[in-house]
Design brief:
The chain is an all-alpha fold and 111 residues long. Helices cover 77% and strands 0% of the residues.
């Protein structure tokens, strides 16, 4: 069995995740703002559905965190914090990752 990736790989994933997540947000937001006005009364439902799509990836990622090494997880959380300061992670997404990651670390360390 190979060595688990360390904090530097988690940091990279946190940074790249922030950048790609922000680009996806811009794309989905531009789609909803350009199409929604044409839908009339269904515009609000359409917009809500697309915004909910933005939550799928973060929830899936948070569910996989328990399988990451502690070092990788710490690096990822550092990347999330750095990218949140730059505005690339939403408050909700950063909160989800930080709470989930912190609970996993506390559980592993017995704190």
């Amino acid at each position: 069995m190979g060595k688990m990736p360390g904090p530097e790989y988690g940091l990279i994933r946190g940074i790249v995740g922030g950048i790609t997540g922000y680009l996806c947000y811009i794309l989905i937001d531009s789609i909803t703002t350009s199409i929604a006005p044409m839908l009339g009364p269904d515009a609000l439902l359409f917009t809500i559905a697309f915004k909910l799509l933005l939550l799928i990836a973060p929830l899936q990622l948070a569910a996989k965190m328990e399988y990451w090494s502690t070092g990788y997880l710490i690096g990822f959380l550092a990347g999330v914090l750095a990218m949140t300061k730059l505005g690339l992670y939403s408050t909700l997404e950063a909160f989800l990752y930080l709470i989930t990651g912190s609970l996993i670390i506390f559980k592993r360390t017995g704190s």
